[in-house]
Amino acid sequence: TRYIGDWSSDVCSSDLEQGTYIAEILQQRDSSLARWPDRGERPLTVWVQPTAVIDDWMPGYVDRVREAFDEWQGVGLPLGFVFVDDSADAEVHVNWIDHFSEPISGRTKWARDDEWLITDANIILAVHHHQGEVLDEEAMRAMALHEIGHLLGLDHTQDATSIMAPKVRVRDLSAADRATVRLLYSLPPGPVR
């Protein structure tokens, strides 16, 4: 179980949080925020597995994942992305699997340091839903948008119109997704007091 802490910070008392779901993230993360450090001119290096020996895997998936990264990059964060051909050169890895045994289509794992700064991450995307149906390219793009949101430090929101809803029902970033990630990257990482 997770402790849901009180948070009475400047975030709460300001108008900054309006139009965001930052409060939901703070509840899910014990009143703490994790994010990548501001990178300036040094973008995150991303490797997307270029092919997979999985039934129904489509080469177009790679393009859809890249488009999802581009969409998040367009939000105007203090970090960007650059794609690399060698996985050894990447801070972020995107891999394919056939399916998950649970009712999800993607998973993101990241590590953070003691200052709550994310240091590296892996995204796994499934070609098939857990019950067997194939994700089409647009569904894969939506799943990638969702998982990249986790990669950036976002958590789920109960707002079903946002890409960060637990069950992805939309195909694009919402105004709340954009506002929340911008707010996250304007705040210092770590416990919010």
Task: Please specify the SSE layout and strand pairing.
Blueprint: H1 10-13, H2 22-28, E1 32-33, E2 44-48, H3 60-73, E3 81-83, E4 92-97, E5 106-112, E6 118-126, H4 137-152, H5 175-184, E7 190-191
Parallel strand pairs: 2-3, 2-4, 4-6
Antiparallel strand pairs: 1-7, 5-6
Helix pairs in contact: 3-4
Report on the structure:
With 193 residues, the protein is α/β, with parallel strands linked by helices. The chain is built from five helices and seven strands. The protein has helices spanning 10-13, 22-28, 60-73, 137-152, 175-184, and strands at 32-33, 44-48, 81-83, 92-97, 106-112, 118-126, 190-191. The strands form two sheets. A five-stranded mixed sheet has the order 3-2-4-6-5, with helices on one face. Helix 3 packs across helix 4.
List its traits:
single chain, 193 residues, alpha/beta, two-stranded antiparallel ribbon, disordered N terminus
Give a short overview:
This protein is an alpha/beta fold and 193 residues long.
> Main sheet?
5 strands, mixed
The percentage helix is: 25-40%
**Coarse shape:** globular
Number of helix segments?
5
Order of helices and strands: HHEEHEEEEHHE
How many strands?
A: 7
Low-confidence region ranges: 1-13
Question: What distance separates the N and C termini?
Answer: 21 Å
User: What is the beta-strand fraction?
Assistant: 15-25%
Strand order of the largest sheet: 3-2-4-6-5
Q: What integer value in Å does the Rg equal? A: 16 Å
Mean pLDDT: 91
Q: How does the helix and strand content classify structurally?
A: alpha/beta
